[in-house]
Amino acid sequence: MGKLRLAVLISGRGSNLQALITACAQADFPAEIALVISNKAAAPGLQLATAAGIATRVFDHTAYASRSDFDRHITRAMEEIGTELVCLAGFMRLLSDEFCDHWRDRMINIHPSLLPAFKGLDVQQAALDAGVRFAGCTVHYVRKEMDTGPILVQAVVPIGPDDTADSLAQRILAEEHRIYPLAVRLIADGRVSIKDERAVISGHEAPTGQLINPPAGA
Ligand code: GAR
User: Fold this and answer.
1) 216 falls in which pLDDT band (50, 70, 90)?
2) Would the pTM count as exceeding 0.90?
3) In angstroms, what CA-CA distances link 9 with 37, 153, 165, 174?
4) Residue 1 above 90 pLDDT?
5) Burial of 13: CB neighbours in 10 Å, binned 0-12, 13-18, 19+
6) Which protein residues touch ligand 1 with a CB less than 6 Å away?
7) Per-residue DSSP letters for 104-115?
8) From ligand 1's centre to the CA of 92, what distance in Å?
9) Is residue 142 exposed (0-12), middle (13-18) or buried (19+ Cβ within 10 Å)?
């Protein structure tokens, strides 16, 4: 069977893109990156793609008359190369309703919080300010409202008393790099369906055990 064809959309560093590149380099991984798109010509992630021999395109959003116009050009580029799944990986542009409708159930995003808590930007600081004991990251299908949509995979990171937004972001990022390839694999293996706006994974077994923070008895 052919591999699922991905387009990855970035705006910056590209560490999640790199995690996907590394996963796709494994012979048995069921997906391949056909195209990397950035809205910023200077995004360091573009060089990661080029180094891996992956085609890149830049669509500078400031060069388009409207958000819809920008989105239409990106859609055309992704359709030209037969994109089956769009992966947003630090793509820092809001998407038009038409774009979200067009790629509905064929577009996923990674976000550095345990959604639906802490949408938007600076979410690690928001978690610290709220005093929660756990943070984490989420891969979800994309819907029109920012950082909403059926949740596919989450990873949890305990927060300690000395954590800063930076230290927390680093530990969350390490988990992002695990769960994004996992989410793509689940989809590529045909194990995911959307029912009543929830992502159902065939053969899904939850891990056993629990995390308590601070640890019980401490
Ligand atoms: C990641 O932490 C990703 O979760 C976040 O931007 C960072 C991109 O890093 N995305 C969002 O906040 C989207 N709402 P990367 O360019 O190294 O992958």
Assistant:
1) confident
2) yes
3) 5, 19, 25, 19
4) no
5) middle
6) 10, 12-16, 45, 89-90, 110-112, 147, 173, 176
7) TTSEEEEESS-T
8) 8
9) buried
Dist. CA 17 → ligand 1 center (Å):
10
> Catalytic one among 61, 102, 111, 204?
111
Counting atoms of ligand 1 from 1, which one is nearest the CA of 14?
A: 16
- Mean pLDDT score, 142-171: 98
Instruction: Please identify, by atom number, the ligand 1 atom nearest to the C-alpha of residue 11.
Output: 16
Atom 17, ligand 1: which residue's CA is nearest? 15
Residue 163 CA, ligand 1 centroid: distance in Å: 19
DSSP output for 31-98: EEEEEEEES-TT-THHHHHHHTT--EEE--GGGSSSHHHHHHHHHHHHHHTT-SEEEESS--S---HH
The CA 177 to ligand 1 mean position distance, Å, reads 10
How many whole angstroms separate alpha carbon 150 and alpha carbon 83?
21
List of domains in the chain: 1-103 (3.40.50.170), 109-205 (3.40.50.170)
The answer to whether residue 61 is catalytic is no
Q: At what angle do helices 165-188 and 15-24 cross, to 10 degrees?
A: 30
How open is the CA angle 31-35-178, to the nearest 5 degrees?
45
